[in-house]
Amino acid sequence: MRVPGAAYLIVSAILFTTGAVGVLVRRNVLVMFMCIELMLNAVNLSFVTLGRMMHALDGQVAVFFVLVVAAAEVVVGLAIIVAIFRRRASADADQINLLKW
Amino acid sequence: MLRQIALVPLLPLAGAAILLLFGKRLARVSGYLATLLVAGSFVVSLTVLSGLAKLPGDQRLVVRHLFGWMAAGGFNVSVDFRIDPLSVMMILVVTGVGALIHWYAIGYMADDERKGRFFAYLNLFVFSMLLLVLAGNFLVMYAGWELVGLCSYLLIAFYFTRPSAAAAGKKAFLVTRIGDLGMLIGLFAVSHVFHSLDFGTVFGAAAQHPAPHFWATAIPLLLFCGAVGKSAQIPLYVWLPDAMEGPTPVSALIHAATMVTAGVYLVARAHVLFEASHVSGIVVAAIGVATVVFAASMALTEDDIKRVLAYSTISQLGYMFVGVGVGALYAAPEAYEAGMFHLVTHAFFKALLFLAAGSVMHAMHDTTDMKQMGGLLKKLPVTGTVFVIGGLALSGIPPFAGFFSKDAILGQAWVHGDKLLWALGIFGAFLTAFYIGRQIFLTFFGESRVPPEIHPHEAPRSMTIPLIALAGLATLGGFLGLGESSSTLYRWLDPVFTAPQGSFTPAVLKPGLGLSAAAVAVGLVGLILAYTFYLAPGATERRQRITTPLAPLRELLKRKYYVDEIYGAVIVAPALALANAAAAFDTHVIDGAVMGVGKLVGGGAQVLRRIQSGLVRRYVMTMLGGIVLVVAIFLIQVH
User: Fold this and answer.
1) What are the pLDDT digits (tens) for B86-113?
2) How many angstroms separate the CA atoms of B374 and B272, rounded?
3) What is the pTM of this model?
């Protein structure tokens, strides 16, 4: 069975929206982080889909860049989260407001 | 040849450097060190004199190149020393009289704890003055010119904890700066017209191709501005009386014998430029003779022993300018030589008078008011005797030095037909004799008015020996120029002032003996009048009878013609008002603008920083909103 390209894009959109809403509504930093990953992967999916629909490899190349950046981002982000958790025993994003005026 | 010339200024410079660095540690020997170095400089100057005298008369000009100073395009200045009869005469006066004054200062400053610093400045001054007179171009001369001004400032304000001394130093510096500014512009003009600042080049060019009319007049007048400031002539003389706040050796060295004569030296040195313009000669002579009478009249009512001498110095400098002014007016070598002759004799007798006055102050615990003196000759026999010798030299009584030189200047004015100059000069001589007679009688003769708690005592040997040496010079110095054009000094200076091309030699004009007799008579009348009003029996009543009708005049003289007040109201007050206005503009407008910008940014930030809530989710929301907005705009544009 051949699944039409539009279906992949719809899945991608659903995933992205889920991630975006998750970032906005959840207060747990870790969950917010996972939602960001979800958004990144939604974008990856649409990249691959569109690449295939256009018979080009560009989309898949772009995915590698996203993966690399995401990996680096996870490393840094998790390190920050661990550091904050050690200090404050909390992962509530609303409590991390030292940067405010 | 004459390689040793560099040593002349370098010895005092070394002294200044050593004493500035180690003055505190060397305080006890500082005076001896400084004196020895200046004396050494004098000895070297003597060898320079003998070296130069060995040359034939028309070759007595040696320019020693020391090093290149600055070169920018076609503008080249190097440090050269110009060794000619004029500069050698000046270095002999500076180092000779300077050494005697240094010697005297050892005793005078013995109890001062800052004497290391004092002798450092004094040596620095001698160096600067030697640089000024030896300079081979205008710029090096100007450097020396400003350095002596600096030393003058430092030494007038030597007792800087005394507000009056600090103010006097500032006044001297600022007033002479006014003249120096004119001189600096004159230097620019010289460079513009002659494309060089070197004396040889400029004077050679000026003698052969006179500058265009405007510049020919402007250049000497601008240079003369500097001379007016430095030599304390009308209208810039006001700093010199106040300069008496400095220690007395300073007054003798800087404000009588050497620095204040720099202006006369400048006119003599640049005489080719002054001769190019009829106006400049008239201006020099007119300002000179006006200063003679004006300053002498202010000395009449002065009660401060040093200030009398200060006004006297201003007045005597006026005579020198009359001499060189007449010289410039008629291209007359004898008149220049008379002016320089008076410079030399004045250095002798005025340094003597100042140092003797210092000795009186030393004996009187720094009292300078002559009303508290009187009868001091018995207590201070040496000081009193030498002061009388200096006074006789000043009032032009033969055979003392001042007679010959003043007579020579007045004679030159007469033979060239300037009877008015002569008459004013003679009148000035009368006033001179009167005020110095008054000073002598008030200080050394008559009843003692010394306060009972002061016991005057003669100065130590180290002070009296230089006094006696200077008294000898003040007595015999006149014979240097005896016979005028056939005398040693005149013949020595002839190569400097006679025109280099030799085509035009003015007929030698000899003033008659009658003129000299008139000058002596006037001097004697002045002294006798002073005697009748200040010493003779019944002098007090006679004085009162005279001063009662003349009270307004006396008040005018006492207040120095209100010149300080007028300058204060016309120049100082507007300048201060302008400065205050500028300061207010600076704080309120310029500072206000700068601070306003800062406050604007700060205030804006106060408002805007509230956006930074610190809530991560709000940031994400904003970001997302932004992205949606951008994408929306993008999509709308595509369609």
Assistant:
1) 999 999 999 999 999 999 999 999 888 8
2) 49
3) 0.81
CA angle (B296 as vertex; B514, B431 as ends), nearest 5: 40
Cβ atoms within 10 Å, residue B597: 10
Are B61 and B83 in contact by the 8 Å Cβ rule? The answer is yes
Mean pLDDT of B530-537: 87
Asked if residue B472 lies in contact with residue B377, where contact means CB atoms within 8 angstroms, the answer is no
Task: Report d(CA B41, CA B201) in Å as an integer.
Answer: 29
CA distance A84 to A81: 5
ipTM of the complex: 0.78
Residues 6+ apart with CB under 8 A from B149: B173, B176, B177, B180, B230, B259
* C-alpha gyration radius of chain A: 17
Tell whether omega for the bond before B466 is within 30 degrees of 0, i.e. cis: no
Name beta bridge partners: B62: B83
**CB-based contact B341:B490 (threshold 8 Å):** yes
Dihedral pair phi/psi, residue B81, rounded to 5°: -110, 130
Alpha-carbon dihedral of residues B271, B276, B281, B284, nearest 10 degrees? -60
Cα–Cα distance, B510 to A15 (Å, whole number): 123
> CA B394 to CA B257: how far, in whole Å?
13
Q: Phi/psi of residue B204, each to 5°?
A: -60, -45
Domains, chain A, ranges and CATH?
5-99 (1.10.287.3510)
Give Cα separations from B317 to B233, B300, B550 (angstroms): 8, 17, 28
Smallest CA–CA distance from A100 into chain B, residue: B614
Instruction: Please list the residues that pair with B81 across neighbouring strands.
Output: B64, B135
Chain A residues bordering chain B (beta-carbon distance below 8 Å): 20, 23-25, 27, 29, 32, 93-94, 96-101
pLDDT at B347 over 80: yes
Looking at residue A69, its amino acid is V
Distance from CA of B579 to the nearest CA of A (A): 45
Query: Which residues is B198 bridged to in the sheet?
Result: B137
How far is the first Cα of chain A from the last one, in angstroms, to the nearest whole number? 57
Cβ contact A32–B621 (<8 Å): no
The alpha helices in B486-615, defined as continuous H runs, are 488-497, 513-534, 539-547, 551-558, 563-567, 573-585, 591-608
Main-chain phi, psi angles of B63, to 5 degrees: -110, 115
State the best of B615, B621, B624, B628 to mutate against chain A, taking most chain A CBs within 10 Å: B615
- Chain A residues with CB under 8 Å of B620 CB are 23-24
Cross-chain Cβ contact A94/B617 below 8 Å: yes
In the structure encoding, which two tokens stand for residue B489, read together?
């000094």
Segment B218-254, tens digit of pLDDT: 999 999 999 999 999 988 999 999 999 999 999 999 9
- Which residues fall within 8 angstroms of residue B51, CB to CB, at 6 or more apart? B1, B2
Q: Give Cα separations from B47 to B40, B92, B319, B488, B560 (angstroms).
A: 11, 11, 31, 18, 46
C-alpha–C-alpha distance, residues B168 and B153, integer Å: 8
